[in-house]
TrEMBL record:
Pfam families: ThiF (PF00899). InterPro entries: ThiF/MoeB/HesA (IPR045886), ThiF_NAD_FAD-bd (IPR000594), Ubiquitin-activating_enz (IPR035985). Residues 178-350 form the THIF-type NAD/FAD binding fold domain. It comes from the Bacteria. The lineage of its organism: Bacteria, Bacillati, Actinomycetota, Actinomycetes, Micrococcales. This is THIF-type NAD/FAD binding fold domain-containing protein.
Length: 492
């Protein structure tokens, strides 16, 4: 199991402003957290900050807590059902901070108090004042802390502090020279270590996944339970007629193309033939640091919208809609992209997600011609072409660069809409209202509203594909292709 810590940008600002004093002395602080549990990674999501009252901590060079402060905070944490976080600062520290003997003894002594009050492990955190870097460790017992792999602050800019011992800086390869020249070694070291998930392996998702691999990321996952069909070949650039004839899983095709594009020394592809609308898919998604939403249905988009806020995993969402005249001529094309993080609007408040459509999607009615006609609804648009899907993937990737490389120090923009017929780029200025359910669930973690449901339809589809017996000639071609790709990717 891997461990990490996440917090919203606003929460981080409150803690940072308290801990990094103008007089240069150390300070201490207490906060609370909840768990966000993935398959391989458990994240402590910071929920609230409990500021000290007069006399509740001592600042004398090396700052210290008082028992009254810890007991009061532990009581508040227990009432809320949260775990306890003890934080302190190293004003001259840089990078991931380790524990001094005094720090170790303090946190170890308070571990029992925190556990007995909250029945959750205590979390210790340190901030280094020289570069505002965070570090964290979980106290499952008094003997030895379990160190987190990373601490991320999520806002329109994503800032991650890495534990280099658990997630080492990858070597910069010769193939990455132009990439590194664009944002420097330090940014590349952060970006390359991000675990990024692409949900949807169609035309847009396939392009995004390959370009992430080419950028030097060492772990990229693709989630899709569908297979390649002949009708996909005019948009899924890189998929072949053999892929369609074999009905290959889209994640398998994506993995092959990503390996060919990868520039990292030890590139890891993760293939997930599951649905994001299933709790299994949600748990997998929580193992990642950033998610690309390349899906076009309301239900999966609602699930991803929830994860972005409840679990503080930024979601970069986009799509395209093409319309035609009755005689078949092209009328217009609109594509849009936006990044879902605290500080930016959710899909529901943008009007890109209608709550009632989620229920209809679960029932399969949005694809039912009889229902659409009877309800006087407009049928969903499925038109797309390779020449325009590239524009969507480019805009999604530009959002990613803004999120992680921070050009101009501004982070991701508000929602962007491009109207093809007028060649107009529109900047939406919508914001989440005070009663937005998604915004108000920020940092909820495992207490998020349950939108995903166990279903067997996607499982049956995957299982049926795996049991198909293809003709001998296709199996031979597949074997030859596999050997060719295997030896081609070994070329150094």
């Amino acid at each position: 199991m891997r461990y990490s810590v996440a917090m919203s940008g606003n929460t981080e600002a409150v803690m940072r402003d308290h801990l990094l004093r103008e007089d240069g002395q150390e300070d201490v602080l207490i906060a609370t957290y909840v768990f966000s549990t993935g398959v391989e990674r458990t994240t402590a999501v910071i929920r609230s900050v409990i500021l000290p009252r007069d006399g509740e901590r001592h600042v004398h060079g090396n700052a210290s807590f008082t028992s009254a402060y810890v007991l009061r905070a532990a009581h508040e944490a227990r009432l809320a059902g949260h775990g306890l976080v003890l934080l302190h600062s190293h004003p001259g520290g840089r990078g991931w901070q380790r524990l001094s003997r005094t720090d170790w003894e303090t946190e170890s002594d308070y571990e029992r108090v925190a556990r007995s009050a909250t029945e959750m492990p205590m979390l210790g955190m340190t901030i280094g004042g020289e570069d505002v870097a965070w570090s964290a460790r979980f106290w499952f017992d008094r003997a030895e802390p379990t160190w987190a792999e990373s601490v991320r602050s999520v806002s329109p800019t994503l800032a991650v502090t890495w534990n280099d011992e658990l997630r080492p800086v990858p070597r910069i390869t010769g193939a990455q020279a132009r990439t590194v020249s664009s944002w420097g070694d330090r940014a590349q070291g952060t970006i390359a270590r991000l675990r990024v998930l692409v949900v949807g392996g169609g035309s847009v998702g396939l392009d995004v996944a390959q370009r992430l691999a080419a950028t030097g990321l060492i772990t990229v996952g693709v989630m899709d339970y569908d297979a390649v069909e002949e009708r996909n070949l005019d948009r899924m650039v890189g998929a072949t007629r053999l892929d369609a004839a074999l009905g290959r899983a889209k994640v398998e095709v994506a993995a092959r193309l990503m390996r060919s594009a990868a520039t990292a020394d030890a590139f890891e592809v993760r293939r997930h033939e599951v649905s994001i609308t299933d709790p299994v898919g949600v748990s997998i998604a929580l193992d990642y640091d950033v998610i690309f939403s390349c899906v076009d249905r309301p239900w999966p988009r609602a699930v991803l919208n929830g994860i972005a806020y409840a679990d503080l995993v930024p979601v970069i969402d986009g799509g395209i809609a093409l319309t035609t005249f009755p005689d078949g001529r092209m009328r217009n094309g609109i594509w849009r992209t936006h990044t879902l993080t605290p500080g930016r609007s959710c899909m529901a408040c943008l009007g890109q997600l209608v709550a009632g459509d989620v229920s209809l999607d679960k029932l399969g009615l949005l694809e039912d011609p009889e229902y659409i006609e009877g309800a006087n609804r407009e049928a969903p648009s499925h038109q797309n072409v390779a020449a325009l899907s590239a524009s969507v993937s480019a805009s999604l990737l530009a959002q990613f660069v803004s999120l992680v490389a921070h050009p101009g120090s501004r982070g991701v923009p508000g929602p962007l809409h491009y109207v093809l017929s007028t060649h107009t780029l529109l900047h939406a200025d919508a914001s989440c209202g005070p009663y937005c359910a998604y915004k108000n669930a920020t940092g909820a973690g495992d207490r998020r509203t349950r939108i995903a449901e166990h279903r067997n339809d996607w499982r049956e589809k995957v299982e049926a594909r795996r049991t198909v017996r293809h003709p001998v000639r296709l199996r031979i071609l597949s074997g030859i292709e596999h050997l060719l790709h295997r030896y081609t990717n070994r070329i150094q």
